[in-house]
């Protein structure tokens, strides 16, 4: 049998990353966090004094970024490096989050990154891989055996994000999350399930129940 691909999309604060990672662990799969790539590219441009709004300059930095960025597909080892620097925490920070949507909306950037994702997915061994992002079910891996949209009400997503960033005022976190979802939505639709995509709504269930639900959907489709 071919390796199983589980594609998971959803908005910020839906719990996508932690749920996807837990599902990968449970199933013994690899795990690809595609948002981390956009985040690392954003950091790479900031480090190189490239304006993230300058699409041509961002496109021009792709090859250097590709040569510098390394990522682990092991769900138990979250490690991203740029050159020899560990950027695992930095790519989640506010400086990167503020500019990531600008680099992610450039079509050439998406095409380049998606090619990389497709080759990573094509080279994965059995039993499979969980791939998580915004356009995985629709663009990156529309042929995935399991395609899931992970959603939660806006209120639930904001509450979870605010709890994650205890040191920041809840209002700031909520506003930034809304702004980022609005910007990202103009590029790909991750709020509505495409044909054949199963929605898992985590508004009223806890983390473990959400992981269970995603595993059940995956097992029913594979
Ligand atoms: O999922 P995460 O919040 O880490 O994603 C960071 C950013 O990367 C998103 O706000 C979006 O701009 C971009 N992204 C994307 N397509 C993906 C994954 C992430 O455009 N598949």
Automatic annotation (TrEMBL):
Q: Where in the cell is it found?
A: Cytoplasm
Q: What's its catalytic activity?
A: CMP + ATP = CDP + ADP; dCMP + ATP = dCDP + ADP
InterPro entries xrefs = Cytidylate_kin (IPR003136), Cytidylate_kinase_dom (IPR011994), P-loop_NTPase (IPR027417)
Keywords tagged on the record: ATP-binding, Cytoplasm, Kinase, Nucleotide-binding, Transferase
Q: Name one GO molecular function term.
A: kinase activity
Q: Which residues form the signal peptide?
A: none
Which E.C. number(s) belong to this protein? 2.7.4.25
Enzyme class, broadest EC rank: transferase
One Pfam family of this protein, by short name? Cytidylate_kin
- Where would I find the Cytidylate kinase domain in this sequence? 6-218
Residues noted as binding ATP in the record, renumbered to the chain:
10-18
UniProt cross-references to NCBIfam families, sorted A to Z:
cmk
Describe the family membership recorded for this protein in Swiss-Prot or TrEMBL: Belongs to the cytidylate kinase family. Type 1 subfamily.
Q: Which HAMAP family match?
A: Cytidyl_kinase_type1
- The protein depicted here goes by the name Cytidylate kinase
User: Which species does the entry assign this protein to?
Assistant: Plantibacter elymi
Organism phylogeny: Bacteria, Bacillati, Actinomycetota, Actinomycetes, Micrococcales
